[in-house]
């Protein structure tokens, strides 16, 4: 087990997320503390890269991350996962302030975002089994999600319209998950499928954490650095005018739309290799 590689990667990611959380809130963006943390994060990341290139059994094999498929597939899936988790974490605040929903009602209003994405994944999975150009379903899906996110950013809508647009957003981004995962698995040797699957899931989780921190930073900058977004939404948060919250979330929805547009672009750039069939008895024995 490459403990040193894992510690270096985690330390770099944690320091960078603290920069996103504290910057503009606890410290000024150009303060010595934030600059020092940025430098520390970069230094830890470079140390991880050096260690991964020289270790016999690296925590994350970097040569496996290259090529014309894996980096694009990982970026597409990571952006889609980040946008979904980032909105899932912050939308209850939007529901409570703008639409005056209770905590339980705000949780129920997350169902279109959390559940409908599985429908998009199912559609993409079925399409991959029959279509020769299988990545087209993910390109179209993520592009539709980007358009739905753009509509959320540009317009102020009743709750039912918001839920419909979120359903379209979730349906589209769900198509990115099976296509990106299977494409990455299909591009490596069968003996490396487990490694590339774990690396893909790790990158998605890391991207989701970054996105939550970025969306929080966006809201803090738009609403004011003295607002706390953690815990129960009491005190200063509950006193924010609904119009200010709508204006702040325009940036959040816009960022989510940009992420899905980026996911669609990465899917376009990804090489579409013919999918391999089931393993033969000889391959399974190997």
CATH homologous superfamily caption of the largest domain:
MFS general substrate transporter like domains
Percent of residues in helices: over 70%
Silhouette: flat
In the predicted model, the low-confidence regions spanning at least 5 consecutive residues are: 231-235
For this structure, the CATH topology of the largest domain is: Growth Hormone, Chain: A
Element pattern in H and E: HHHHHHHHHHH
Classified by CATH, the class of the largest domain is Mainly Alpha
What structural class should be given to the helix and strand makeup? mainly alpha
Distance between the termini: 24 Å
Count of distinct strands: 0
Summed up, the helix count is 11
Question: Which architecture of the largest domain would the CATH scheme give at its second level?
Answer: Up-down Bundle
What do the pLDDT scores average to?
Answer: 87
Number of domains: 2
> What percentage of the residues does DSSP assign to strands (E)?
under 5%
């Amino acid at each position: 087990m490459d403990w040193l590689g894992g510690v270096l990667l985690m330390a770099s990611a944690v320091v960078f997320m603290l920069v996103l959380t504290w910057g503009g809130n606890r410290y000024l963006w150009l303060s010595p503390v934030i600059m020092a943390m940025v430098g520390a994060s970069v230094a830890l990341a470079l140390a991880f890269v050096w260690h991964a290139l020289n270790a016999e059994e690296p925590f994350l094999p970097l040569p496996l991350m290259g090529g014309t498929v894996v980096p694009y597939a990982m970026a597409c899936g990571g952006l889609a996962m980040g946008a979904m988790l980032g909105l899932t974490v912050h939308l209850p605040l939007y529901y409570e302030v703008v639409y005056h929903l209770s905590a339980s009602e705000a949780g129920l209003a997350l169902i279109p975002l959390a559940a409908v994405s599985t429908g998009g994944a199912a559609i993409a999975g079925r399409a991959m089994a029959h279509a020769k150009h299988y990545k087209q379903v993910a390109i179209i899906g993520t592009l539709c999600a980007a358009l739905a996110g753009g509509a959320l950013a540009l317009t102020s809508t009743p709750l039912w319209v918001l839920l419909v647009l979120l359903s379209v957003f979730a349906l589209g981004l769900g198509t990115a998950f099976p296509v990106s995962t299977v494409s990455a698995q299909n591009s490596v040797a069968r003996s490396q499928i487990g490694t590339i699957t774990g690396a893909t899931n790790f990158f998605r989780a890391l991207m989701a954490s970054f996105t939550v921190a970025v969306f929080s930073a966006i809201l803090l900058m738009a609403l004011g650095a003295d607002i706390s977004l953690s815990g129960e939404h009491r005190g200063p948060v509950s006193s924010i005018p609904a119009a200010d919250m709508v204006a702040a979330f325009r940036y959040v929805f816009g960022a989510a739309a940009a992420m899905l547009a980026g996911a669609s672009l990465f899917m376009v750039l990804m090489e579409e290799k013919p999918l391999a069939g089931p393993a033969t008895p000889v391959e399974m024995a190997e």
